[in-house]
## 1
Amino acid sequence: MDLWYTEKQTDDFGITAKVKRTLQSEKTDFQQLDMLETKEWGNMLVLDGMVMTTEKDDFVYHEMISHVPLFTHPNPKKVLVVGGGDGGVIREVLKHPSVEKAVLVEIDGKVIEASKQHLPSIAGELTNPRVEVKVDDGFMHIAKSEAEYDVIMVDSTEPVGPAVNLFTKGFYAGIAKALKEDGIFVAQSDNPWFKADLIKQVHQDVLEIFPITKLYTANIPTYPSGLWTFTLGSKQHDPLKVGQDRFHQIETSYYTQALHQACFALPKFVEDLTK
Amino acid sequence: MDLWYTEKQTDDFGITAKVKRTLQSEKTDFQQLDMLETKEWGNMLVLDGMVMTTEKDDFVYHEMISHVPLFTHPNPKKVLVVGGGDGGVIREVLKHPSVEKAVLVEIDGKVIEASKQHLPSIAGELTNPRVEVKVDDGFMHIAKSEAEYDVIMVDSTEPVGPAVNLFTKGFYAGIAKALKEDGIFVAQSDNPWFKADLIKQVHQDVLEIFPITKLYTANIPTYPSGLWTFTLGSKQHDPLKVGQDRFHQIETSYYTQALHQACFALPKFVEDLTK
Amino acid sequence: MDLWYTEKQTDDFGITAKVKRTLQSEKTDFQQLDMLETKEWGNMLVLDGMVMTTEKDDFVYHEMISHVPLFTHPNPKKVLVVGGGDGGVIREVLKHPSVEKAVLVEIDGKVIEASKQHLPSIAGELTNPRVEVKVDDGFMHIAKSEAEYDVIMVDSTEPVGPAVNLFTKGFYAGIAKALKEDGIFVAQSDNPWFKADLIKQVHQDVLEIFPITKLYTANIPTYPSGLWTFTLGSKQHDPLKVGQDRFHQIETSYYTQALHQACFALPKFVEDLTK
Amino acid sequence: MDLWYTEKQTDDFGITAKVKRTLQSEKTDFQQLDMLETKEWGNMLVLDGMVMTTEKDDFVYHEMISHVPLFTHPNPKKVLVVGGGDGGVIREVLKHPSVEKAVLVEIDGKVIEASKQHLPSIAGELTNPRVEVKVDDGFMHIAKSEAEYDVIMVDSTEPVGPAVNLFTKGFYAGIAKALKEDGIFVAQSDNPWFKADLIKQVHQDVLEIFPITKLYTANIPTYPSGLWTFTLGSKQHDPLKVGQDRFHQIETSYYTQALHQACFALPKFVEDLTK
């Protein structure tokens, strides 16, 4: 049977993936949630019509949003993940033995449930005792936190729907307050081919708040254009000046110590967005 | 009007692009050639149903296949491009003032004509006096050449149809013979998500012939998975040991001096293909 | 190359046809005009994203909108076609030797030109000396005509864009005025699966003006649902009471004398729309 | 979420329908069975990638394959349905009070189960005491029957896969034997736009066995071309010579007494297939 999921990543371009069956399909309080069994990518989580993660390529995003800040920080103990209900960031965070507590604040409890059921390889660590899962508004959680976290990752959807507040300068200011004095923050900041203006804006906004602001990239085949960016804001630690001895062996499929540096070497047209 | 071009990059996954009109569509002696005016990517050259290049993202591929070997070589004078009838590699090669002669050997003259007509920003330098264009079989041209070229780029289609010979060890041996004693060669070697075995094979084959064999990557949004690889074989010069003074300013949109190094830092699962 | 034209006939359903090339694609003063070379249907005229006619199945629509009223009228001499710039209705009208003059009033001259160039088997009779082609607003032409025509066919697009006036009671009243005292009129009135309300409305409106109002159907595979309706309004002559001797042999591929009766036997759910 | 089911009805043409979710998807012993919840057509049964029936338009096929032969026969008591596991033909058969027993022989029990679960408005009468359901090979059941049935309907899939034997002259001969001396048989015989040769062959084969052989049509929007044919073979009773008093009131959405005649008036190009 010819059943295909198509995501129009722009009005005029998209990806299309063969679907064996839908595993879940519901309107939650916050968004349309669909879980698809695809032939190419395994199970795929789709929110409001956009691919969030898949069993086959989730490792890229989750490793790169996690290990870059976690190895930049000399001793991350308390970590916050805003969004990220699929549990992939949490899984990577726990690979760092220094982390004593990882808090996940996801606004949509249905995303967590669906991921536990249909994406076990991604969500498997959500029940780890070092993890605290809160179904709550990340924006409000940040507003109430002060000098609490070493590292914060913002693993949000696009700046539409429930995530719209997570792309504002006020939010970044809140994050700065919620971080300890040498804290580090990373947010996914979309792709430079179709969303150059967004990257530019996020970079400008973060730069006004964090002395060290840097953009880095990773290849995610199911995300628009395949070239994804992350914006990192740091109060003290420079990701490009991490001592060799800071790194320790963790099991990864994408991240390497060499890539930790190399991912900050931007294509010229992306670099230009940060100037 | 809803007119969409879809490339199934695998049996179960693909890209889809809105088309305003077809500019050309013919069966040449070698392949099906289609030139599409797309809304997202501008004019797009499609051979045997696969995207070859587009006006909007051509710069990535053409810069990265060219400048990495050309800056690795201390003084490239004579350069050969096998395939590449769209002229994009030639355009980049000519940015290097040391190059006295660039030879293009494209088997399908129709590709050259179509590119000149519909992709002027890509094919514009094919008439440059430093360029010699031959409509000929690249495999045969290589077989007849000896110690002639400083740098050879293999800008071929997938290893099906006319390009099948260009992915054989015999061809790489021929290239080694056609190169001068400190010559360098680069071939596009597809993507690691869907064609891991091909990358592995090419790397093994080239490694048996060239003492310095390295894989590097670039993000090309209209190519399968968005993550493209290039395999570089070099007789003497190591691309990672290029002196700072070797670089000179050229106008690029993707390539930078920093990326020249960084593009060799591979994602772990890609690095594993080279071991 | 996988190039497909898709017409979403509703928000949730459509047809899709493989395209070899676009033959023409332009924004006219009135609409978007595309001429496609399809593999299944031959050349296909698309206006504002909707299939108007194709070389392979045009005969159904053009025969059925023409021969039913023309055989119902005892002696049609002067015939008007409103719309129908592709010339298909004209071709069928001229098969009736009684017709001395067939006037075509098409608002968009580009449709006529494109059809002459790319649909010769349909548009071929537009240059027949019995035909008068006017590039003009059909609504205005009707408004200026009085007791002039024996038969009028309204071969319009959907009631959006340039054709919106052609689905109003005022227009039907104008047609009654433009017809002679025993004149007959037919309008295409869309399909009962997706546009039941439209059929109902047209039938009601025509019925208030024409004593004999009847709906009939034909199967057109490239039109929404495949089941097309025509609304016929007649001042005196009943299409179901045509004498056997009225019919004469004409060459057709769809219309037959038996179908002239049978096409008025409606599926129950369609019949219900006329009550 | 953009999830669409596409049926390529030919290599170059098809329909496409938006899907909310898959309700069932499994490989049975005989075929791939998919049950889709579509937005336009309600639940849709798909076998081996082809639409079998939908909640919205099932009435056309099921009424027309049933009531035409059942009203042609003066007193049908025992009826056989070969295939038809969705139960739609049975539902219509039971509207005839003369029918004492309706036997359904469906080779794939999974089709029956899936229809009971997901197509209750179609399959609802399968548990009626007048109905006997056998999960068995229709070809073998026919071979073992002799002078047993008044009316037989062959409600099969396309002549590929499990249904291939149901389009052979040997099968029609078996049906003749299984029917009583004034029995009537109907088989769906595909569409004249894409399968003209099949219609021609079936008509020829049935004509050699049944003195009265006639083709009739109905509009089914989810079937290829929208114009479907049925081939009727009768030993004595002519469907066009049914007395007015034979008809009685039944509830239908498509079939009417007038259509009983009119559906045999074929488009010229379809009529030509019967000569």
## 2
Amino acid sequence: MTVQPDDTRANAGRIVISVDAMGGDAGPTAVVAGLADSASINPDIGFILHGPEDELRRLVARKKILEGRVDIRHAKDVVTMEDKPSHIMRNGKGTSMWSTLDSVKKGEAAGAVSCGNTGALMALSMLRLRKLPGVNRPAIGVLWPSRNPQGFNVMLDVGADVRADARDLLQYALMGASYARNGLELARPRVGLLNVGTEEHKGHAELKEAHRLITDHADAANFEFVGFVEGSDIPGSVADVIVTDGFTGNVAIKTGEGTASLISDLLREAFKYSPLSRLASVLAYTSLQRLKKRIDPRRVNGGVFLGLNGTVVKSHGGADATGVSAAIKLAFTLAQSGFAQRLAARVASTGTLSQDDSQSAQADDKDNK
Amino acid sequence: MTVQPDDTRANAGRIVISVDAMGGDAGPTAVVAGLADSASINPDIGFILHGPEDELRRLVARKKILEGRVDIRHAKDVVTMEDKPSHIMRNGKGTSMWSTLDSVKKGEAAGAVSCGNTGALMALSMLRLRKLPGVNRPAIGVLWPSRNPQGFNVMLDVGADVRADARDLLQYALMGASYARNGLELARPRVGLLNVGTEEHKGHAELKEAHRLITDHADAANFEFVGFVEGSDIPGSVADVIVTDGFTGNVAIKTGEGTASLISDLLREAFKYSPLSRLASVLAYTSLQRLKKRIDPRRVNGGVFLGLNGTVVKSHGGADATGVSAAIKLAFTLAQSGFAQRLAARVASTGTLSQDDSQSAQADDKDNK
């Protein structure tokens, strides 16, 4: 590891974000371009950048705005998209991803950003940062374009774990509400539990149990529980936070993304159809750009890992400079609001709810009734 | 029940569809308008219509095109959207829904269409028509706009049952492939199993088992198994049939619908933004209409109940005349192709795969290897 006291001193007073330069589809060039975008917008961000030192030094030197704001840490290995999480947990020590998380663990950075392999990043994050006391399964939360005034809803889990029992879903509700308070500035977020219908008799037994648990904890945790919601409510306006297991959540957001992408392609085709429609597309250009910006997935790039001792933002693997910059901004915003500390306090205040401890969990339920 | 020999005779030579006039949000007026739309396009359809006789007679009399083509059957009760399926199974005998299915059971109609309560319709369908031998859980299959040349993919189950084990998923693959052959005229459909990633190590144990079972049966059942697919592939081009459990499928299609509806509203807003964009929207009118038609959910209105002795099409509860007419067209197309008989033959040919009979199922697997 290369320690660069000059750069670090230069970043004094700045909020430092630890960034993994490797593992994304577009390589370190896109990541460094994203750093430059962020640095030019926000004078209060500094960076620790992880990857092959010589290459990164060259890339950073080309961006004037990054002068004195990037501390480069050498890491020779890269986690690829094909690596199995279990393999990386045993052999990941020399990777840029490991090094990126290490800076958060050591307190040198207020948050981490990586475009790499999601499964490996979650596995290493759990290994290096550890789960918050009381959290059984960490979750990945994303912002999703919605009809709500804030423009986005929080959705979790979108793929940290394919399973979630009733107590995990309660934790997700607590963590999602905390994220909405700090990331979307909603004082009292409305939380919905994803199901196949809004009637209370619908769905798995596990969901009915989760419904009961979340109802019991809503007041103490300062959120409003709106009960069961449906897939159509993910981009809707009845809830600000959508809680579900990582299997369903992952399928749902990918279906939404696929549908949006199909419509956008068909729209482009429609505008190419005739000379008149081509003229229309020229006239509508600014309106369509505005729409595109409103639902541009790059603008809300970044899944936040919730339930760990530290903030980790997973950027989309295919992120370009704009996407990387959005993920950095998210990590910065959460660091600035002291999100990690607030979330830890929130989870701790609802008592121990680990699966192995249903006795104390039941006691906790009673206290909240 | 009112028997009307005159009308029935008039429908000789026509394919008769049994239609529930009640239970939809828009009431019998929209249903009768849908009948009229269908009748004017297709001279080969006749109808048996179920509901309050006097009201239906008045509505039908207003549509010249329906003269001599509608056999009205009196049913005084209606299944509401709030009725629990279990209640309807015990007390549904006087309802228009019951009567609608009865016409299929008795062989008077080649298929049934209802806009009513999905859960009640599935429960009554299972009670009246019975499951096909070898089918454990019937499924609801829908057509979903996609990038494939046929314009649509088949997706199932979208909500007949919130659970599905590996053998149910195999049945869904067989039934979905059969539907794609008869509904979309694909000789050798490509079937994908929905998961959170395409790698074979991903997902629940149940999914890995289903992957193995479907691989073993693909050749004999004359479809191509493309393995695991993701949410983004539901509107994609890597598979023609997407297989999943009813919980995940229901959330996925509702998320897709919600996303499409949000984008369409934002698009409308974008075009209202300035005088220039309003002008653009006028010029782009026909192109946008073409796009709208391509992804209009009313055009593919109708979930088909698969795995029963008879064809039942569930129309969207909020369907208007266009939606009802699309659902009727679907029932007609499937009836014409002898779908119910072909599906029964297909399921029978893969042997008994009930959950209680894993011994014989394993033997069946070996035979197919």
